[in-house]
Specification:
It is built from three helices and five strands; from the N terminus they run E-E-H-E-H-E-H-E. By secondary structure, it is α/β, with parallel strands linked by helices. Belongs to the anti-sigma-factor antagonist family.
Length: 111
Amino acid sequence: MDINIQFREEGNLLLGLIEGEIDTFTAPILREELEKIELSNEISVELDLSKVSYMDSTGLGVFVAFYKRATKEDVNLKLVNLSTRLTRLFEITGLSELMDIERGGIGHASI
């Protein structure tokens, strides 16, 4: 399956739109794209997951690693527009207690 990642900047906010499935095959692509982002405490990052149709534990690992990196750099990271299924995945793993997550319908316009 394919994954598509797009970014755009709005002032000091970096908006990312992720589309497709995040699994063992596509997670390395997502990880690589997230690692390219230059983080500083002067920016916020908002990742829109409204078009993610599937995610497994490999995908969760990518978001955990990026969350740790963002926290280390004192960057505000928010995951937005999660489907009920993705929201539940973050909840049952306990990640929703750590990360800033907004369920679908809320957030900025798509990329």
